[in-house]
Design goal:
The protein is built from nine helices and no strands. The protein is an all-alpha fold and 180 residues long. The termini are far apart.
Length: 180
């Protein structure tokens, strides 16, 4: 169906007919999961939003070429390579001085989440990416290797080192009752 543009805008009913197919549907369905991964990598809400938006902007032209089935892996790869690129530039952008949570959470939940983000931030970039993909995105070792463009053995060794570092992280240590 051909659509006409009047005064630079599309007719209202033409927009409604599209629904959320294609790239827009992908963003609507998987945007939150992409943001969550980006937030775990960066530890910052706004930087995570910037990372996802940048990755989607870099990826949208490839929608037709890659196809819907392989597009999520493609976008995730762009998210991680863009994150590494930003890290190498050492530019962190603006940091807000006050942080207001989007939703109220129990103090215990906020503390645990903040401790986890702090522990993840201490990991090297490669280990952090492997942990986020394996345990937060629930990808297999093979899928993680494909997304990051590394071997399965490297995923295993990076994961092992990361788990060891997280176990000894002072951010994640909890004192047991009776420890004095």
């Amino acid at each position: 169906m051909e659509r006409t543009v009047v005064d630079g805008t599309m007719p209202h009913d033409a927009v409604e007919d599209d629904g959320l197919d294609g790239f827009d549907g992908f963003v609507a369905a998987r945007g939150d999961a992409l943001w969550r991964s980006a937030w775990l990598l960066t530890g910052d809400h706004q930087l995570a939003e910037d990372l996802v938006q940048t990755a989607l902007a870099k990826s949208w032209r490839a929608w037709e070429r890659v196809g819907a089935d392989g597009f999520e892996a493609y976008v995730r790869r762009v998210v991680y390579t863009t994150y590494v690129s930003w890290w190498r530039r050492r530019w962190r952008g603006e940091r807000p001085t006050e942080h207001l949570p989007e939703r109220a959470a129990a103090a215990e939940d906020r503390d645990a989440r903040s401790d986890l983000v702090a522990a993840l931030a201490r990991l090297p970039r490669g280990q952090r990416a492997v942990v986020v993909l394996r345990y937060f995105e629930d990808l297999t070792e093979q899928q993680t290797a494909a997304v990051l463009g590394i071997g399965v053995g490297t995923v295993k060794s990076q994961c092992s080192r990361a788990i060891g570092a997280l176990r000894s992280s002072p951010h994640l240590r909890r004192e047991e009752p009776g420890d004095d």
